[in-house]
Amino acid sequence: xxxxxxxxxxxxxxxxxxxxxxxxxxxxxxxxxxxxxxxxxxxxxxxxxxxxxxxxxxxxxxxxxxxxxxxxxxxxxxxxxxxxxxxxxxxxxxxxxxxxxxxxxxxxxxxxxxxxxxxxxxxxxxxxxxxxxxxxxxxxxxxxxxxxxxxxxxxxxxxxxxxxxxxxxxxxxxxxxxxxxxxxxxxxxxxxxxxxxxxxxxxxxxxxxxxxxxxxxxxxxxxxxxx
Length: 227
Fold this sequence. Notes:
Blueprint: E1 2-6, E2 9-12, E3 18-21, H1 24-32, E4 35-39, H2 47-50, E5 57-60, H3 81-96, E6 101-104, H4 106-114, E7 135-139, E8 145-148, E9 166-171, E10 176-181, E11 187-190, H5 201-215
């Protein structure tokens, strides 16, 4: 069993009190891979104490918008400043100590921004990508296309990807990055959500296999039937 830290959304409850929010899908998905998750509060006063305990991977989650300085376009969306600060400290600690990082959706965008890349706000896609509707992507350096899920409107275009990373899955029709890795750091990042529903078994298995290979875990026996 591996142990992983996972970040959380910064929110408010019905009484207006600040809260940490973590979708159950993350816990269910990563436990199915043999990873026990330890959520990190956005409001901890002693983040350094977290590093006293050994962990094997950091998962930087999705949900919400980052600070406007990270975007090509200006925006006035609601921010999560406590979360941003905690995530940055966690990411930089893991990079320094060579601990694997998995970024998901907003997490991918945050990692890209911290290393000099940019994000496009409410990206004006040439080919629309409705939320909740899977769409085709291509695996880089191959003719393989498969469907992955879509729960975002912001994106990282290829020209705005940090030079520290290279894309491994792209949306060719819109010129956007769907997944990237780093040649020098142990980072794997997705624009889609591996832990959520896929319209096809191929997309689900492909996502699991990427994570399993990245962390050195045994693959599921079943192989994705992709074009």
